[in-house]
Amino acid sequence: MAAMLQSFGVATASVGFSDHSTKLSGFSVHSLPVIRSEGRSISGPINGTRKTGKVITKAVAAQAESPASAASKPGHELLLFEALREGLEEEMDRDPRVCVMGEDVGHYGGSYKVTRGLAQKYGDLRVLDTPIAENSFTGMAVGAAMTGLRPIVEGMNMGFLLLAFNQISDNCGMLHYTSGGQFTIPTVIRGPGGVGRQLGAEHSQRLESYFQSIPGIQMVACSTPYNAKGLMKAAIRSENPVVLFEHVLLYNLKERIPDEEYVLNLEEAEMVRPGEHVTILTYSRMRYHVMQAAKTLVNKGYDPEVIDIRSLKPFDLHTIGNSVKKTHRVVIVEECMRTGGIGASLTAAINENFHDYLDAPIICLSSQDVPTPYAGTLEEWTVVQPPQIVAAVEQLCQ
Amino acid sequence: MAQLTRRTTALQKTLSAAILSTRHLSTSPITVETSVPFTAHNIDPPSRSVETTPQELLTFYRDMALMRRMEIAADSLYKSKLIRGFCHLYDGQEAVAVGMEAAITKKDCIITAYRDHCIFLGRGGTLLEAFAELMGRKDGCSKGKGGSMHFYKKEGGFYGGHGIVGAQIPLGCGLAFAQKYSKDENVTFAMYGDGAANQGQLFEALNMAALWDLPAILVCENNHYGMGTAEWRAAKSPAYYKRGDYVPGLKVDGMDAFAVKQACKFAKEHALKNGPIILEMDTYRYHGHSMSDPGSTYRTRDEISGVRQERDPIERIRKLILSHDLATEKELKDTEKEVRKEVDEAIAKAKESPLPDPSELFTNVYVKGYGVELNKSLLELDLTNLSRFSVEQSLVLFSNIKLTLLVIDCISQSFGADRKELRAVLP
C-alpha cells in the first residue's frame, strides 16, 4: 500500500483529489479504478479501426459535472498542453534563468499552443523565436546552459531534432563528463513526436530509440496532464539535460490536476492499474491502447498490471522489478520501432536483472520497422493496436 | 600594474619582474605599428598604431615562449607515447592567443575547437593541468577524462575544447546570448578554423547572432589548411572575413600579437554596441594538423621555413624588444631557459600524477539532484590482486568482468520510490 502511494508521488492520501483517491481505492484486485484520462479511451471502438476521429474523444462531455459539483471538487481541469504550459509558467516565474527557445514559440504561441501567451508575459528574449536552424539553436541553448541559464528547447516536431543530433549527443550529453564536472547543462529538450493522424513518414518519428544510447541525458515521456506538468517541472529543475517526449495525439487530453504545486520524480514509473496476472509496461500514447485492451482483458477474466514507465532513461527497475516479481509475466507495448527501440533495451534490462522471476519470455510489441505510411489503414497497422495487446496477453498467460 | 599582476598569477613568472627591477624601465607607453594595415568589410578598420608598454612586450615574449615550449614538449611526449590519441599543436599561432588575452578580461568568454592548449594557458590554466590532462592523469583540468581536445577552465571563462568541427560556434553564440540575457557587458570570442568556416552551423549561428545583436565575435584562425586541404581547394571564397555578408569583418595579421590585440579590442567595443563581427586571423601552424600528420605532404618545407623566418610571432616581439632596448639578447635567452625549465618541471610533476580511479568512469555522467545517483560504495573495486598485472592487462580484466557486474548491481539498487531525497515535492 505504501509503495503504491509512493509511486503516485502523492505524499498522503489525505491530500485527496477525487480522481487520485479513486485510483488509490482501486487496490482491490478486480475493480478497475476510474482514472479520468484513461476513461477517454473507452469510447473508442475495440476492433482498432477508427473511422470516426480520435480514440481519445471529448467524451468527457458524458461525465461532465454540473457547475456546482465542479466547484466543490478540488483541483482544476485542463488539457495536456495547458498543463505543460502551466508547469512551464510556474517554473519561469520561480527562476528568472529559465528561458524558452524554439521555432514559433513566441508570437505564434507554439505550434501546439504550449507556449501561448508566454512571450507577451516574459518578453521576446526569454521566449525566443528562432529561425529554422535546429542544430544551431540547440547548440545555443547548450552554450547558454554552460553559463548557468536554464533553456528549454522546443523542437516543433521531435523528428526535426535529428538535425541537432550532434549538439544533443556531444555537447548536451557529454560536456559534463569531458569537462570533468566543471560545466552542467541543465537544458530541457521537448517536443511532440510519435505517430499522429496521417502526418507522413518524416513527421511521425519516434526519437526515443535514437537518443537512448547517449550517455549523460535523461529521457522522460509524459502521457497525462498530471504527469506532463509534474515532469515538465522536474525536468526544468533537474541539473541534467532532459529530453521530454510528448505525443502529438495526446495534447487535448483533459484531466483534473491539483491546485497545489507538485513536482514528479524523473526516474519513476507510474502504476496505472495494479494487477496480478501479467505486467504490461508501456509509455506515452500506447498507455491508452493498453488501457483499452485492459478493459477487454478484464472482461475475459485476466488481471493485468499496467505500468507507465515514464522514465525512458534510466528505467525505473525498482517499480518494474517489484511488478515482475509479483506477476512473473511481462508484455511491453511501445510505439518505438522494433529494432533498437526502448522495448528492446527494456527487454534486455529485465532479462538481465529479473531472469529468475520470469515464467515466460518477455513479449515486446512495437511499431513495425517501416517508415510510417500516409494511408490511414496502413498507418494504423504500423502501431500496436489493442487487439494485438489482448492476443499477446492471452498467449502469454496460457 | 594590474595587468602585470594578472599575468604573473596566471603564468607564475618571475623573470620579467627581475628584468624590470634591474633595468628600471619606464612605464611610458610605446607605440607600435602593426605589420600590415587591417582590411575591413562593411566597417571602418581600426588604426595601425597600437599603444603598448615595455611590461606588455616582455609579457608577450614570455607568454609566447612558454606556449611554444609547451607545444614542442607535447610533441616529444607524444612521440614517447605518453600522450595518446589526437594532439593538435598550436605553435606558430601563439600570437592569436596572447594578443586576444591582452585585449579582454577573464569575464569575457572564449570558446574554441580542438587546438586549445595555448588558449587554455592564456585563460589561466596551469602547465601542470595541461600536461596532466594530456597524459590522462587525475590532476588534469578535466580530471583526465577529456584529453587534448577537451580542456576547459570555468573560472577563466574558457569554454573549451571541442572535437567536432564547427559545433562550438553555436555554443559560442549561446554564451553570447547568456551574456546579453544577464546584461553583463561582456563578449564571447567563438574561434574556429578555415576548415570550419564552411560549416552550415556557422552561418546559422551568425544569422541568429546578428538578428538579436548578440555580443559574439567570431574569430577565424585561418592557418590556410583544413587538415590536408588548402583553403583554395575547400572554399570558393577564402575571404573568410567577408563571408558574413551583412556582418562586418576584419582581416588581421595573426602572426602579429599587436594587430591581434588591436583587432580584439576594436571588436569588443563593436560587439557590445552593434552585435557580431568576424575577425579573420591570418596565421600559420608549423606542425601538421595533428601529431599523426607530418604536415609536409600538402605543403613544402620551404613554405614552412619561409614563414618561420619572416613571420614568426616570437621573433617579431624579440626584434621589437631589442630595438626598443628593453632587454638584452642574453636576458631573452635566459627567459627562454627559464621557461624551458618551468615546462620540464611541470612535465615531471604531471608524470607523477596518478591515473584516475576506476570509479571515475561513472562520475560526472549525471549531476546529483533530480538525477541519477550511482551507489558509490558498490564501485569500490578490489585492486590488490591486480598489482602484478600491467596497466593494460588490468584494464582489460576490469572492462570485461568486474565493471559489468558492478554496473548492473548499481543500476538495480539505485532507483525507485524509496530514495527519500528524491521524493516529489508536495505541500
Automatic annotation (TrEMBL), chain A:
<dbReference type="Pfam" id="PF02780">
    <property type="entry name" value="Transketolase_C"/>
</dbReference>
<keyword id="KW-0670">Pyruvate</keyword>
<dbReference type="InterPro" id="IPR005475">
    <property type="entry name" value="Transketolase-like_Pyr-bd"/>
</dbReference>
<dbReference type="InterPro" id="IPR009014">
    <property type="entry name" value="Transketo_C/PFOR_II"/>
</dbReference>
<protein>
    <recommendedName>
        <fullName>pyruvate dehydrogenase (acetyl-transferring)</fullName>
        <ecNumber>1.2.4.1</ecNumber>
    </recommendedName>
</protein>
<keyword id="KW-0786">Thiamine pyrophosphate</keyword>
<comment type="function">
    <text>The pyruvate dehydrogenase complex catalyzes the overall conversion of pyruvate to acetyl-CoA and CO(2). It contains multiple copies of three enzymatic components: pyruvate dehydrogenase (E1), dihydrolipoamide acetyltransferase (E2) and lipoamide dehydrogenase (E3).</text>
</comment>
<dbReference type="Pfam" id="PF02779">
    <property type="entry name" value="Transket_pyr"/>
</dbReference>
<feature type="domain" description="Transketolase-like pyrimidine-binding">
    <location>
        <begin position="78"/>
        <end position="253"/>
    </location>
</feature>
<dbReference type="InterPro" id="IPR029061">
    <property type="entry name" value="THDP-binding"/>
</dbReference>
<keyword id="KW-0560">Oxidoreductase</keyword>
<dbReference type="InterPro" id="IPR033248">
    <property type="entry name" value="Transketolase_C"/>
</dbReference>
From TrEMBL, chain B:
<comment type="function">
    <text>The pyruvate dehydrogenase complex catalyzes the overall conversion of pyruvate to acetyl-CoA and CO(2). It contains multiple copies of three enzymatic components: pyruvate dehydrogenase (E1), dihydrolipoamide acetyltransferase (E2) and lipoamide dehydrogenase (E3).</text>
</comment>
<dbReference type="InterPro" id="IPR029061">
    <property type="entry name" value="THDP-binding"/>
</dbReference>
<dbReference type="InterPro" id="IPR050642">
    <property type="entry name" value="PDH_E1_Alpha_Subunit"/>
</dbReference>
<keyword id="KW-0560">Oxidoreductase</keyword>
<comment type="subunit">
    <text>Tetramer of 2 alpha and 2 beta subunits.</text>
</comment>
<dbReference type="InterPro" id="IPR017597">
    <property type="entry name" value="Pyrv_DH_E1_asu_subgrp-y"/>
</dbReference>
<feature type="domain" description="Dehydrogenase E1 component">
    <location>
        <begin position="62"/>
        <end position="358"/>
    </location>
</feature>
<protein>
    <recommendedName>
        <fullName>Pyruvate dehydrogenase E1 component subunit alpha</fullName>
        <ecNumber>1.2.4.1</ecNumber>
    </recommendedName>
</protein>
<dbReference type="InterPro" id="IPR001017">
    <property type="entry name" value="DH_E1"/>
</dbReference>
<dbReference type="Pfam" id="PF00676">
    <property type="entry name" value="E1_dh"/>
</dbReference>
<keyword id="KW-0786">Thiamine pyrophosphate</keyword>
<keyword id="KW-0670">Pyruvate</keyword>
